[in-house]
# Entry
Amino acid sequence: MQRSSRSCLSKLLPIVWILAALLVEACSDLRGRRSTDWPAASGGPGGQRYSALGQINRTNVQRLRAAWTFEMAERGDPETTPIIVDGTLFAYTPELAVIALDARTGHLIWRFSPERATGAPRVAVPTGPSRGLAYWSRGRERRLLAGIRDRLYALDPDTGQLIDSFGSGGSIDLRSGLRGDGAGHSVFMTSPGIIYDDLIIVGFRTLETHPAPPGDIRAFDVVTGKLRWSFHTIPHPGEAGYETWPTTAWQYAGAANNWVGFALDEQRGIVYAPTGSAVYDFYGGDRPGDNLYANTLLALDARTGRRLWHFQGVHHDLWDRDFASPPTLVSVSRGGKQIDAVAKLTKQGFLFLLNRVDGSPLFPIAEMPVRSSEVPGEESSPTQPAPALPAPFARQRLTRDELTQRTPGAHDWALAQFARFRSEGPYTPFGLDRPTVLMPGFDGGAEWGGAAVDPKSAVLYVNSNDIAWTGQLAETALNLGEGATTYMTQCAMCHGVDRRGAPPEFPSLSNLSSRLSVSDITAVINGGRGRMPPFPNLEVGLLENLVSFLLAGTDPARAAAPGPDSGRHDAPPVLPGVTTLVAAGAEGRNERYAFTGYKKFLDPDGYPAVAPPWGTLNAIDLNTGQYLWTVQLGYYPELAAQGLDATGTENYGGPIVTAGGLVFIAATIYDRKFRAFDSASGLLLWEHDLPYAGTATPATYMVDGRQYIVVCTNATRDRRARQGSAYVAFALP
Ligand code: HEC
# Structure
């Protein structure tokens, strides 16, 4: 008995030892490899930009310091939020190569650029924002889905190699299947697609002018690249919403596209897709009606693309009031019950909170009467929606009392300018007679950086721009040559009728010949750059005439110079121009009015001509619709040196929030700071210099038990600053 039990034990012992050793190893492995991903640019499918990590928290954030920096000597501004999976960080370079970095050290693991993969040399690589990648896995299969310009690539995350079996040789041409053969379409994937099961759902950026393709929202099979569904944001005959357009509009209307990305309710299988304006952005004489589903939050069945409900934020948009901010999912408490909601922020400074399942408003939304357009042929909407709560997070009406007081001279100048403007609050249509104030300006309010929400408290954090811009329409004249005509219809909107642009956002094109060669200019026009969309649709002859017009300042055919628009706001409403457009015309098409150019209302020294704050960060309790706090975000170093530091500045790229009680945001253009605020009080707890402005939304993750915060930095928004771009990661020492 004894013997046998001893022999049994002695037989078992080694097994017990092995098991124990395995257990210890597994535990230490777990501890050693403790890691938390940031698997989507917006933190996760719900777009919350929230992390449950709390290693870095209110008590120790002061000790946060730079862990590594990855410099990139390329031009362009990717605006990327990296994704981090299993200790590897995936992101874009400014010229839109995909890079994989060791998330602990910032060391490059691999780099993929389509130019290299296809061997096609380019004069200049077109750049533009690419705000993040999408990651998919099933069992052992793993894929990165990378939008680069007009294509979607599938890459092996381990090697950066193309996955040949996806689409055609590893990529899909996003131009095809929209309208016609697709070759001339301007399509640029600026935001990541969203993964649902084995689908990737994508949108794209396109032109703001005719002819733009329709902004179909599409789902592709992650494995094969085959199209699985397509939703027409400009409805075809027989589809709901078709009645909100002229009958043939589906054949010529364009855009109404999703360029800012999505949020997904994974459990219910609902994808939330906000859309932008329909072309032409500022004159809608050829598209009478509400224009569904432009400027709309769409709730689609993620499996089929079927529309479940929709909410249109701007009817018949005439202001380029895109839904420029991605949606955020949240759960709020109402009368003791939890309600799943979706929050939608706007450029206008509104926050719409809707029931996620049926789209019903959780704070009442009223249709407010607005001024009607006086421009001939225009039928503006008599009302626009506005929520009762929360109050707007940006000023919506500029009055004399809100003009700059920075210096007496600046104030007097602003007063004189203001006297010439029309300033009658939100949704005042642009007129022909004088500039109209748009407050907040064309860049929001809320922008593509998105909002962060703490799921536990249902507090939402959003940064906002709070400065004024102006806009005006001008009647176009006949008799222009082809080059000037193309310029007026396609380019003047950004570069101004006088070709002086609105620097630094929209560069001046005067004296181009001293800077750029014909082939440089052609490359920029065809491929796009930064915020400028590509124009691949211009025929060769047309392009040649356009380029010579740009270089000579007169049209080779007609020698007719563009109309005078001398100085900032002195433009008389005279615009030599156009009656017909380049694209195939359609009935009812009317191009009689053109936008004279985006103009920021700046004082003679280049500072906003409105009183501060010029940029803010806001915390809004979504249970009550009340503000927890608002702080100025950013400063101009040279003004701060004179004691004017509480201004806030323009800011791009959003916040993230963590369980450590912190809101991290960079975003400010001029002070180049990275900041952490107490999420409960708005108190600034930490700030750190960045090599360039952190104009992108950060990400946070943990590898080997250490929490990091990383942000993409870039100098292109402040041309006076040292130029460059880098990813910078921070961690506790
Ligand atoms: C939506 C606004 C927009 C439109 C429309 C637009 N551009 Fe641009 N363009 C820009 C921006 C922004 C830049 C600066 C890009 C950068 O360097 O990041 C730019 C840059 C350029 C440059 C390079 C300037 C330089 O100094 O390097 C040229 C040339 C140019 N645009 C020509 C055109 C022409 C021609 C058209 C019409 C066919 C056009 N653009 C339409 C926004 C626009």
Remarks:
- Confidence is low (pLDDT under 50) at residues 1-5, 27-31, 558-590.
- Residues 208, 490-491, 493-495, 506-507, 509, 512, 515-516, 521, 524-525, 529-532, 535, 546, 550, 716 surround heme C (CB under 6 Å).
- Residues 65 and 730 are 5 Å apart (CA to CA).
- The radius of gyration is 26 Å.
